[in-house]
Amino acid sequence: MVIVMVIVLVDLLTGAGVPWLPMLAAGPALAATTNGPRGVLCVGLLAAALCATLSTVYRAPGREPAAVLCAVLAVTAASGLASELRGRRERVLAAVRSVAEAAQHALLKPVPETVGPFQVAVRYSAAAAEARIGGDLYALLPTPHGVRLIVGDVRGKGLPAVSTAALVLGVFREAACDEPDLLAVVGRIERSLARNLGPDDFVTAVVVGCPRPGELEVVNCGHAPPLLISASGGVEPVEPARPTPPLGLRALSGEHPELHLLPFSDGDQLLLYTDGVTEARDHAREFYPLAEGVARHVSDEPARTLSAVHADLLAHVGGRLHDDAALLLLRKSVEEPAGGEPEEAGRAPDAGREVVPVRSGARPVAVTCRGGGR
């Protein structure tokens, strides 16, 4: 309506006359972008009335006023139809988003802020904002064998990737509670994927368990290495001793995953993520430096740390990610005994376990157990 009044005002001030009148059709055309059919009709009728009035004032000759009036009415009718179709699409999209949110809550269940001795935070962003879910997956749950968690990335996008993510999470949640051995949990996921995936499909994942205080078990299946953040603020990648194929490809390579024992003291944090984070590029095609971003924003509150890192990531890419991205941060709470002194965090591995120290940056990482058992 404002456009219509501006056109009329300009026409009266300049005295341009009839040549300006066809511009009145812009009113209902623009109204269709924000208004419903009734709003478009009101703007169109106002434009038609003003067109007829000005044609009379200017005493336009011949059939020109009638042609302009017909053009305004035709644009009004077309704009009203476009407005109705737009409204239908918005209602369908709202329904799809509602279903997607329900599916996300069923698939990627909310993670509590505190699980056992750990503080936890999660940030997830789907590349398809309308869908809200994608091929990245995560889960964390307490089990009879300690807290266990998984972060993974399914090859591909869309509904097939979501279906595969649901399969992985379903098997993980069941096996994590049943199997005392973390490698057995990974083996059950592998066997399920081998039966259900196509030959070119696979899932990269990191599976973590906490069987005892002071250490974590880590199994990396072709995934990006987690980042270990020490209590002093140092950030190091936890690299596997040797590459392991993603889940679903073991039959092709014959390689078996390894179990890594990672010392994890009070105040230490472990960040698991998907490649949508590290492969995010800015306008200069530079990858996002996750380790540097974490070092800048690390704090004693995982939720605050991830919020700052996620905001930094969005600023790096210019506001929108082009791939699914998941971040899960696990922090060992600092416990103080009754005497008030911090409890000693590290605890030596069991004497009966064979432990071979492996260096990951400046922090020792112990590795044990090859193949399918310990």
What does this molecule look like?
By secondary structure, the chain is α+β, with helices and mostly antiparallel strands. It is 41% helix and 21% strand. The protein contains ten helices and 13 strands. Strands 3-4-5-6-9-13-12 form a seven-stranded antiparallel sheet, covered by helices on one side. Helix 3 (37-58) packs antiparallel against helix 4 (64-107) and helix 5 (158-178) packs antiparallel against helix 6 (182-196). The longest helix has 44 residues, at 64-107. The protein is elongated, with a radius of gyration of 30 Å. The N and C termini lie far apart (75 Å).
Which features characterize this protein?
single chain, 374 residues, alpha+beta, seven-stranded antiparallel beta sheet, six-stranded antiparallel beta sheet, 10 helices, disordered C terminus
The oligomeric state of the chains shown is: single chain
- Per DSSP E runs of 2 or more residues, the count of β-strands stands at 13
In the predicted model, the low-confidence regions spanning at least 5 consecutive residues are 340-374
Give the fraction of residues assigned to helices.
40-55%
In this structure, how is the largest beta sheet organized?
7 strands, antiparallel
Order of helices and strands: HHHHEEEEHHEEEEHEEHHHEEE
Strand order of the largest sheet: 3-4-5-6-9-13-12
Could you tell me how far the N terminus lies from the C terminus, measured between alpha carbons in angstroms?
75 Å
Beta-strand share of residues? 15-25%
Shape: elongated
| Alpha-beta classification | alpha+beta
Over the alpha carbons, how many angstroms does the gyration radius reach? 30 Å
Let me know the average pLDDT: 80
